[in-house]
Amino acid sequence: MEMKKAIPAWFQPVFFLVILVTALLLTCNFHKGKGYFNWRSEIWTDRAGYYIYLPATLYYHWDLKQCPPEMDGKTGYGFTYDYPNNKIYTKYTYGVAFLLSPFFVAVHYITKISGMPQDWAFAPIYHHMVDVGAVVYMVLGLFLLFRFLRMYFRELTSYLTVLLLFAGTNLFYYSIVDTLMSHVYSFFLIALFLYCLKLYLGNPSKYLCFIIASFAVSLAILIRPTSMVILPVFLLLDVKNRADLAERLKFILRPRHIAGFLLILFLVWVPQLLYDHYLTGRYFCFTYGNEAFANLLAPRLPEVWLSTLNGLFTYTPMMILFIAGMIMMIRRNAANGWLCLLFFLGISYVFSSWWCWYFGCSFGQRSYIEYFPLLSLPFAFLIENTGFRRKKVRAACITLLILLFSWFNINLSYAYEECFFGSVWDWNQYTRLLYKANLWPVKPFFSYRNDFENMAMNNGGKTTPLVSRSGDNSLLFNPSLEFNSTFFEYPANLAGDSAVRKLKVNLYVFKTSQSATGAFIVCDIKKDGKQILYESRPLDVPMARARQWYAVPANFDIPKDMDPWAELRVYIWNRARTTFYVDDLEINSD
Length: 590
What we know:
46% of the residues lie in helices and 13% in strands. The protein is α+β, with helices and mostly antiparallel strands.
């Protein structure tokens, strides 16, 4: 018999207060001692690009002459100073800054009243402000999602769903660790959109709910334009058949809905249009340059879902249960089952079509996070329909998986260091990451692979899609490029407890003509500036043909009794300054 007893009313505020306090303690502890103006700090690279709107508006008044000198470089060039034109350039929109503005203003007055240093709005207190803001919006998003789920499921199911969503997905990482990326803020906006939309569909007299839903989705689209993929939910949420669809279409297309939504969308975009005009003299400009959906005809779906380079299921295995819930909903003909599955497939196609399908330095596929509120429906359905009385084995298995996936996610979040430094299918590097997170029992042997798809591993080298042996890109060498340092490591990290005896290198070269490349692969070992080893091997091999990939093996004997903390580098020396391409570099120790 199903338990009917209601959960006490006091439990709801206590539940979310506990999550809030716990998350604040976790994020404060994580960022303690990480420093500022480095890759570990909250305001760095992309994050600084989102943040700059706040100090630029409230402190510098968009006048470069009032800006702190070299702050763009100190924060990783997430924004840049255009001195000739007296402009502050960022390719990101103002949406995240808008949501953080109440916290920013509060900190501003705290520093004024207390006499704390402001340091042009880049003082430590502003970094901590970002952490607090991310946690607050995460908890608000979970609360709104809870209220949304309560319209479909039992109270206990809704509580479990939001708790496991926090603990078992990369929402945890972007709420606790990487707190100024846009995803937790978009997560809140989509949760707000779904909750208000559901209220309005249930009671059309609440037009304010439609206005709030329109504002939330408009701001989400401003932050990440791909969020427009959520718009069909206006038409399809809770629709079960063609008659429902026709009725919803007739309802949504009423003039007050179309006019209201477009007006709100325009008002949300007005400040961004003004910034574009300030920057370029035009009211609209595409600030992402050559970044585009380059893989529309060849989407990287297997990589997006399963790759060691930020794959969805590889880093967030809890998503397996989301998919299981979709299948269960469809089999039982439940409302929104097909909507969730088709939506998941649709956004997967969009993400896998983007030129950088792994989204740079990312913990898993961060692009899915803002859509967790909708995708939580099948996850909650799975929890709701996993009864302990009738199907104890299935319930026990799902419970065990939920616990394992949550433990996996939290451990991996703390072990991860912003980027995955491996190739697309580098299982050895992924296993080393699991070992670091105490998720793998045996330390794996060292292996380095670089297919030049991962920008984090290119060390400033220029990659090109003109030719490639695997994936989309190869490393380009031309007369203007003499050196490219492709690998750096300490020998102590290569072989663990035993000494490194030999370094085995293999790579593939593509010549543009029959002439020799005149290039070398070099192994260079130094300690405190003193040369320990310098050896090179030619990249030209007998019978190598032009415009064809050929393998170049190279072995280097490592001196005995060498300091394990010497600096070991392997790089390519384009001595003759010729044009050629390199792909699929692999280094192993013996």
